[in-house]
Amino acid sequence: MNALINLKLVTIKRPSGLPAVVQRRNRLIAKIWEQTQLAKAQQEGRTFTRAVVRSVKDAETGGRTTVEVTRRVRPWWWTADNGKVCLNVKYGSKVIELAKGKTTVEIGTMTELVPILDTLKAAVAAGELDVQIEAISNTLRSGFTKK
Hints:
It is a single chain. Helix content is 35%, strand content 22%. The protein is α+β, with helices and mostly antiparallel strands and 147 residues long. It has a domain at 19-46 and 74-142. The protein is extended. The mean pLDDT is 90.
């Protein structure tokens, strides 16, 4: 019992889950991380795919087994007519409006892409895009309701 005297004991209930805003932020941060890894891989001349674990039914035995499947990551950036790299940030299948009427970030070259993605990730973590994410999430969610 002498060891417990040195600890600060409190009565706080552990939350049952993360708030929806934090879940959406984490989802977007994970997608930005994938884009960062894809950009780094392209700059180094490698390919980047993400691994997903899927459960598949075995035709012979009828049992379920888990298999690791690779998924291709599609880049959010492209080269514009003026030769500059442009970037859209996507949440699901929708493009996020970063400022009023502006959805695209213009980047000079591919070497500047990773720092821009890191800046976007910091902005999402700070909650600067919560309103836009909430709006897109509501529009995406409304597509799944029964009419």
